[in-house]
Amino acid sequence: KTLYCSVFLIVVAHISALPGWSARSSNNNQNRHRRLPPSSSIINLEISPQSIVEEITKPQPPPKEPTFNCPICMGPLTEEMSTRCGHIFCKACIKAAIATQAKCPTCRKRVTVKELIRVFLPSAS
């Protein structure tokens, strides 16, 4: 084993003595002190498999019930109505908006009161 190491070191010494050969490329010196971009992720390789299993098996809290607000009055929806383009508003809000401009307040598509559809969303209680 010692003989192989000695031969290897001698070969490396001879090769590095050749003109124009360098153990490090010239680019390597330029890149040596280059900082990583701030958006790069850091991966912690010291996490034990046990902690990963514990994290996966940890009981998750139940998801929160969604809350629905009217994009016109910004309050909770009352008597929810949907336009044919799929946007949902309070009944009073969308009727007033259609009377004013005959367009959906969200996407500006043409809508009429006759086209409104009553929808029933889960209540947030």
UniProtKB/TrEMBL annotation:
PROSITE patterns assigned to the protein according to its UniProt record, in alphabetical order: ZF_RING_1, ZF_RING_2
GO cellular component, one term: SUMO-targeted ubiquitin ligase complex
GO molecular function: SUMO binding; SUMO-ubiquitin ligase activity; ubiquitin protein ligase activity; zinc ion binding
Signal peptide (from-to): 1-17
Domain of life: Eukaryota
Protein name: RING-type domain-containing protein
Keyword Lipid metabolism: no
InterPro entries given in the database record: SLX8 (IPR049627), Znf_RING (IPR001841), Znf_RING/FYVE/PHD (IPR013083), Znf_RING_CS (IPR017907)
Occurrences of domain RING-type (ranges): 70-108
Protein keywords: Metal-binding, Signal, Zinc, Zinc-finger
Keyword field contains Protein biosynthesis: no
Gene Ontology biological process terms, A to Z: ubiquitin-dependent protein catabolic process
